[in-house]
Write a structure and sequence with these properties.
With 237 residues, the protein is mostly beta strands. The protein is built from no helices and 22 strands. Keywords: Repeat, WD repeat.
């Protein structure tokens, strides 16, 4: 479904035959991609005044697709799957993936491109974070990060691209410094959630992180002090 800024339903798009897990607009505003448990991703062409039209269905994954990510100039789309692979697609030719990245030992649940350079960060149920780079033609991971004790569910870059956060089934949020295509741990993890952390995002100024969890709370974290600014829980009624 596509909604207006005022909360009005504009369009319903019907193409998938199972749960839709992830959607992402391309930065150039030309495309929308939707990903599903039906093992496919659908690319839609956007039009300001008309209903989006289907461009193609991306096929080839042999498991669910629960994460998609565009690079900064919309020239590359990444899809991550339960088949443990990542596929890279180019809008010039949607017929086959430009690259298939194989290194994770379990389903790939989170993907994020660096906003400052073409580095892709992937997180998996194997509890590993991998950094992939255009420098080596995406052939093998440039770096593998450990630290999480369970599967990784979410990854988010700061607006500057100088750090990113990861979160998952070990209930914590880890922060990583990012420079010249490499990452290193930045301090101790943020702790407070009592169940898996399924979503994280930096504020536009990078001063805070919001995290959503299976413990039914949203927590706001101050980056400078690494402390909880607020813990939000909606009324069940």
């Amino acid at each position: 479904m596509i909604w207006s800024e005022e909360g009005k339903l504009l369009h319903k798009l019907h193409e998938h035959c199972d749960e839709v897990n992830s959607v992402a607009f391309s930065p150039d505003g030309k495309f929308l991609v939707s990903a599903s448990d039906d093992c496919t991703a659908v690319v839609w062409r956007l039009n300001a005044t008309e209903k989006p039209t289907k461009v193609t269905r991306l096929e080839g994954h042999r498991g669910w697709i629960r994460c998609v990510a565009w690079n900064k100039d919309s020239s590359l789309l990444a899809t991550g799957s339960g088949d443990s692979s990542i596929r890279l697609w180019k809008p010039q030719d949607w017929t086959a993936p430009a690259k298939v990245l194989l290194a994770h030992q379990s389903g790939v649940r989170s993907l994020a491109f660096s906003p400052s350079q073409d580095v892709l960060v992937s997180g998996s149920f194997d509890a590993h974070i991998m950094l992939w780079s255009e420098e080596n033609d995406w052939a093998t991971p440039k770096q593998t990060l450990t630290g999480h004790k369970a599967g990784i569910w979410a990854i988010s870059f700061s607006p500057t691209g100088l750090q990113f956060a990861s979160a998952g089934f070990d209930n914590v949020i880890r922060l990583w410094e990012f420079h010249d295509g490499h990452a290193k741990t930045k301090g101790s993890p943020l702790q407070g959630h009592t169940r898996a952390v399924s979503a994280i995002d930096f504020s536009p100024d990078g001063a805070m992180i919001a995290s959503g969890s299976d413990d039914e709370t949203v927590r706001l974290w101050k980056m400078r002090s690494r402390s909880i600014a607020a813990a939000l829980k909606s009324d069940s009624g």
